Amino acid sequence: MRQIKHMLCLVVSASILWTPSQASGARWDILYRFCFDEIIVIDEIPEWIPVGCEIVDCCPGCPGPPIDWRIRFESGPVESMILQFENLLPDQAQKLGIKGNAKWLDGNRLQIGRGETILSGFSVDPKARPPVAVPSIAMDKDAIRQSIEAMDKDSKEAEKDIGSMDFTVEQMLGPFVVNEFRLRYIITRCPPPTLPTDQIDLNSNAANDSAVVLLDARRSSGCVDDEIQRGNNIISLGSVLSNASCNSEVAVFSDDDAMQLVTPVNAWTNSLGDVLPVDLTPNLLQAPVNVRLLRSGALATAQGDIANANLLYNTNHAGIAFNATFTDLSSNTTAVNLIGTNSANMCTGAWLNAVTTSAFFTPNQLNVYYVNGAFTGLNCIFNRNIIVIGTTANNQTLAHEFGHSFSLGHTNGVPGFGTNNVMIGGGAGRTHFSEGQDFRMNVNANSTINANGVRTGPTRNCPDGTTSNTCPALSLDAVPN
């Protein structure tokens, strides 16, 4: 195939039937739409026009009149049409009559100008391969540039096409049309070039969620810390420079996926086009939870609390799920008496020793006890794997106590937090975690997600009140989740 010279972007190339307008009355067999930048010559259009006819009883090689071509070429932006003939011997070409704006460029290339041209005298040998014409076009660059300049001055014209070209060939056997070829070009403006950009490529985004990305990196303005980016697959970052002395890491939060912390990031250079792939597998981290029911009829409540905790931790991008087993010990006197009902006696040294050495505790997993005591809930600070839920709890209490187990403190009175935050003590209508909280739940070494081996990966020491280039602010939030 011949080369297409200086054609910077081809928008559409299709063979279709198309009616340009009711007024024109024409139907175009071939429609091409392409954009112009510095097109000089399109050397080949992938269409061929064979000399011959389509109607029944047509006999181009039989005695009688030869086949003539009536060519109509109307165009503003196209300077000329060139027909390159194949299977047409030079002596046959020279015998063709030419009437109109056309001339031979060499032995088999005929240049067609605007208007109507008649080629007469095609005599076809039925035993030989028929001559075939392959069209190409030469653009009128000055006309196109003038059209573009006019469009640039008029915003209403800016989105319109630059122009079009109509080319038809009617093959005549005497006074009868025996074959037709119709071609239209529509010339439009090239879209702006797509500049390269540095990117983060998110793989295995389970919910195709608009993930939240916290970017630490170096830009031309200096080090950036916890710059928020969003995207579900390819996230364009513009220009990210090599790290130099800047902290360089990426934290990704997404529904149905575990939080990912990539540190350090060494993918960035001072050139554009760098790509950092981030695989969002595994999906949610599965925290084992042993729920022991020490009060009668608590099963439905506990199941509802676990379901709500799963909802809150997933939709707020924490990346954590709770895989619970439920055991009814309400008729087990030993278990009921051991755990008790008085919150003041719980989480003391003696109580912790008795519980953790009993058959009613599973090491290195979360242990939740529903008791018949008049309090909301508690998480033992000296053993974060122990949570106790009382009778005055609401369906957010368990999710709140899980937050304590994952190293989070209360947010009452903390700037940047409303009453809907899950870590508000004693609240109702608690539905939200911030990305700063999600980060700490996942990376703090004293979070049971890490202490119990549920998560593997880099850990930090980021108390709630700490903000640094490795610990985002607790209240850092990206909404909506």
Can you give a write-up of this model?
This protein has 481 residues and is an alpha+beta fold. The protein has three domains: 12-189, no CATH class; 198-279, no CATH class; 285-451, Collagenase (Catalytic Domain). It contains eight helices and 23 strands. Strands 1, 2, 3, 4, 5, 6, 7, 8, 9, 10 and 11 form an eleven-stranded mixed β-sheet that branches. It has a five-stranded mixed β-sheet with strand order 20-19-21-23-22, with helices on one face. Strands 14-13-16-17 form a four-stranded antiparallel β-sheet, with helices on one face. A hairpin with a 2-residue loop joins strand 13 (211-219) and strand 14 (222-231). It starts with 11 loop residues before the first strand and ends in a 30-residue tail after the last helix. The model is unreliable at 1-27 and 38-44 (pLDDT under 50).
